[in-house]
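Reagents: none. Just compute today. Calmodulin.
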Amino acid sequence: FFRAMMAEPNADERKHNKLPIFHRFICNAIHNLRESLKTNFLLRPQHGAVEARRIVELDANRCDADLTLGELPPPSERLKAAEVLKLCDQWQPRFLVLTSSDLMIALPQSQEISDKIPLHEITHVTRIRDNPQDLSDCLLDAGDHAFNVHTLEHGYNCGREYSFRTGSGDNYDSWMRALSAQSKLARKLAAKRTRIAHYRARTRMITGSTAWQRTSGFLVAANLVVNIAQSQILPVQGSNSNAVFDGLDVAFTLIFTVELCLNIFSHWFWPFFSDGWQLFDLGIVSISLATLVLRNLPGVAVLRLLRTFRVLRLFSKLRSLRIIMSALAISMYPVSNALLLAGLVLFVYAILGVQLYRDLSPADFGSFADSVWTMFEVSTVDGWARVADAVSSTHPDRRGPDASPALFMGSFIVIVFWILQPLVMCVLLDNFVQAVKAERQKAAEKDEQARRQLAQQVRRAADRGSQENVHKGAAPVSQRAPSLEGPLSPLIVSLAKFRDAADLSRRIQDVFKVLDVDLGGTLSFTEMRDGLRRMNFEPPIDLSSDDFSELTERGLLCNADGGVDLGHFEAILTAQVERHVRERVADAFDRSPAQGAGSELGAILAGLKLLLVRGDDDAP
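Predicted 3D structure written out:
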């Protein structure tokens, strides 16, 4: 609304230049607000799809600019660079660049990064054995010059394995040594940062727990009780009771200081200094420390009086009180409008009081300031009779009050006390209820985010533990063929729970509708990548340009604009689901201990595997 009010007038509105400026301002605000509502809320599919698509495309372009991986670093920042082969659906040429922090992948003769692997998330690098039992057909000629790069399961690359092939043995050995050394160094540096982040997260979890907040609130309440007792007893300076109160004050100050230091450590930097309650705690505790350290300096007595405000820290410790205070702060703006109206009425009556009754009652209406105070007293319905008697010019022969003061006081009380004050309370109550709901929802979202972060840290800790086990174990055990799981594995696993072909088709169409945010009927690489990120899979799906090229068979399934329509999208996901099912059956057959003769489970798995093989032979 305010953006609409501050917008420049268009050509249709410039004809109103002869109108007063306030009138033009209101007309401009109404016009822009109407257009904004029409664009954002009142679009209909039959006449607003083009405009909606244009807005979404602008947002997508803006998002694409933020999510791009950028260009390759200059040669001075490259530790190693060479053109290699990367396993997609088959071996494809790629340009591989190793820096101190990432392993970057780009297309040949291109400076745009198509994918990257953070070095600290590389668990291990293994060679691919030249063994037909372990390798697929596309790897039979890879020899000893191909290697796998394994990543963390819940990291940037979602646990995917990358397979590369070099042109010679010397080049292969140098890449293996460089990747192993740099990834090990990057993991050490990341471990230091991760260790601090882990301690910070644990501290934040402890200080944010219910038990900690209740204990802190109890200490603040205990400090209040001590201050009340000290104000009641008024111990003499130098007495034993005064020494006891001084000792308690030092103990509370030290406890609150330790708590503040823990909060600063767990919320460093911006989360702490952007929180008003944290800054309030910082100010109160700093004043308390200053009164302890600077006891003999002049002016410390004034600071010592401010220690009484330490009881207000109770609002920052108890969530219910904090929600109430936040809701009151949010409600102040709409309430201020109603108070402004009441203030304008009070000022108008104060001016009338000065003009009508300054001679009859100089003490009440002698000046504007006196008149404002008098009318404020009347608005509380306390002392209005005294003021009315003071301004009454009743003649000795006339009975009853003068009509002028009665009308003046009566109308003011009706407008202010009977109408405006209940209006202020209604506005306050309505906005307060809405603000409380919003604050509780925000607190619930914050708790859910904290739980997700903690779960993610637990998963990463488990990944690091498995990574350490891999490094401590024997290297030849991990020398195996690359995993054939695709980049859409979390989505494919979810789709693989279909009941029949119709159910699978419906599920794929639902996914397409979710990804097609611009309602254009096709999915571009950017649209598919951003949509899959927003779907919050676990682990998350990070689609690279190489992955998109592999899924679309190097662009054969794309239209002229490079997008994928619903038919091709359904064909892609159906093929991925079939591939996933085949791999699950084959893996279950290889892993099953019941493969021996006479085993019913082994016979069933063998029969399923035979059906899959015959299905592949019958496929065109």
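The radius of gyration is 37 Å.
Action item: order primers for follow-up constructs.
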